TrEMBL record:
<feature type="transmembrane region" description="Helical">
    <location>
        <begin position="251"/>
        <end position="267"/>
    </location>
</feature>
<keyword id="KW-1133">Transmembrane helix</keyword>
<feature type="region of interest" description="Disordered">
    <location>
        <begin position="1"/>
        <end position="27"/>
    </location>
</feature>
<keyword id="KW-0812">Transmembrane</keyword>
<keyword id="KW-0472">Membrane</keyword>
<protein>
    <recommendedName>
        <fullName>Vacuole membrane protein 1</fullName>
    </recommendedName>
</protein>
<feature type="transmembrane region" description="Helical">
    <location>
        <begin position="115"/>
        <end position="138"/>
    </location>
</feature>
<feature type="transmembrane region" description="Helical">
    <location>
        <begin position="273"/>
        <end position="294"/>
    </location>
</feature>
<feature type="transmembrane region" description="Helical">
    <location>
        <begin position="306"/>
        <end position="327"/>
    </location>
</feature>
<feature type="transmembrane region" description="Helical">
    <location>
        <begin position="370"/>
        <end position="391"/>
    </location>
</feature>
<feature type="transmembrane region" description="Helical">
    <location>
        <begin position="78"/>
        <end position="95"/>
    </location>
</feature>
Length: 405
């Protein structure tokens, strides 16, 4: 009897071991297939396969428009309410009366805030690419306001033309009255709106992970797949990046609101992982968004704003230019264009509408071209990203057809 029992147990053990091996081999083949599909998609870029990339980009654009139209139709009540409000504002805008001054003030403030919120969203989302709009727009804006405040001796720039063009007030001011707090208050609205935009841009990973956890479906997102793989391999993590990601995940999961606030309050390239973690572990929406909004729009923005203002303060800028001149041999030749650029900016601040000098400073020319290149790279990245998204649709369709066969 004992022998028969032992002989019965042996096939069961072998069958269990065989099932485990089959499971491991299936997981391995699935990962290999995902890796192969990912490499195939990443090869779909404009400089390698321009015709296919543009073709897929146009098809993905049409599909996105179709999806957005369907979603708007599902929320037609809200769309109708927005159209009614827009119609009422249009009537108030076109009707003459004493209310026009308030309408114009609201229009100006709304467009100004929407501009910076949109740039903040682009910085976080960027259709999967990320346009670093702080370096391109907000940082230079804060720097120009700082330089103008010290040069004019006042932050009372007339409107118009500010913010399109900063011109010193005619009555002038006292440079001693300029402080860090006065400059910070001058750019507070733009900075906070940009920070709020970056917080809004963190919501898609949160909603995607939350929906995937609640429905139990396999989400169409590579970051979420990497997050699940990271959770599975948490014990054997050795490299620094994986350990850093795990640290963010543990902080957000265990500390909650204050952990999210800490991650959002510092420049953190891994914050997307915080959104996915909060969605995966079903952290309440207002806990996640409230901490993110406070961290990015208030704490982090004041830190970044203070850094830019201190860096571009008048005495520090002059010290930097003098330091450049002290470099042996190349110093004076490098110092000259910087001095010319600063002098040109001072002339612009004191003479509105003046003609630009014939010998335009090469430093400003280089900066303009760098900005142009970065914007072009961003546009190309959008095209590549959307083409790769359509390629992923085709791969998923192919795999689903293979399963049904």
């Amino acid at each position: 009897m004992a022998a028969n029992g032992a002989s019965c147990e042996q096939p069961q053990k072998r069958a269990g071991a065989k099932d485990k091996l089959n499971g491991k081999s299936a997981d391995l083949s699935l990962r290999e297939r995902r890796q192969k599909d990912k490499e195939e998609r990443l090869s779909l870029v404009l400089w390698r396969r321009p015709v296919t990339t543009l073709h897929y980009f146009l098809l993905e654009t049409l599909l996105k428009l179709k999806e957005w139209t369907f979603k708007l139709w599902q929320r037609r009540g809200i769309v109708f309410l927005c159209l009614v409000l827009c119609s009422l504002f249009s009537i108030a805008y076109s009707t003459e009366g004493e209310h026009q001054q308030y309408v114009q003030y609201l229009e100006k403030k709304f467009l100004w805030c929407a501009y910076w919120v949109g740039l903040g969203i682009l910085s976080s989302v960027g259709l999967g690419t990320g346009l670093h709009t702080f370096l391109l727009y907000l940082g230079p804006h804060i720097a120009s306001v700082t330089l103008a405040a010290y040069e004019c001796g006042s932050t009372d720039f007339p409107e118009p033309p500010y913010p399109d063009q900063i011109v010193c007030p005619e009555d002038g001011g006292m440079e001693d009255t300029i402080s860090l707090f006065s400059i910070m208050s001058k750019v507070r609205l733009e900075a906070c709106m940009w920070g709020a935009g970056t917080a809004i841009g963190e919501l898609p990973p949160y909603f995607m992970a939350r929906a995937a956890r609640q429905s139990g479906a396999d989400p169409d997102d590579e970051d979420y797949e990497e997050f699940e793989e990271m959770l599975e391999q948490a014990e054997g993590a050795q490299d620094f990046v994986t350990r850093a990601k795990l640290g963010v995940q543990h902080m957000v999961q265990k500390v909650g609101f204050f952990g999210i606030l800490a991650c959002a309050s510092i420049p953190n390239p891994l914050f997307d992982l915080a959104g996915i973690t909060c969605g995966h572990f079903l952290v309440p929406f207002w806990t996640f968004f409230g901490a993110t909004l406070i961290g990015k729009a208030i704490i982090k923005m004041h830190i970044q704003k203070l850094f830019v203002i201190i860096t571009f303060s008048k005495h520090i800028v002059e010290q930097m230019v003098s330091l450049i001149g002290s470099v042996p041999k190349l110093g004076p030749s490098l110092q000259k264009p910087f001095r010319q650029y600063l002098e040109a900016q001072r002339n612009k601040l004191h003479h509105a509408g003046g003609s630009a000098p014939a010998d335009e400073n090469w430093l400003s020319w280089v900066f303009e071209k760098v900005v142009l290149v970065m914007v072009c790279y961003f546009v190309i990245s959008i095209v590549n990203s959307m083409a790769q998204s359509y390629a992923k649709r085709l791969q998923q369709l192919r795999h689903s057809e293979e399963k049904t066969k």
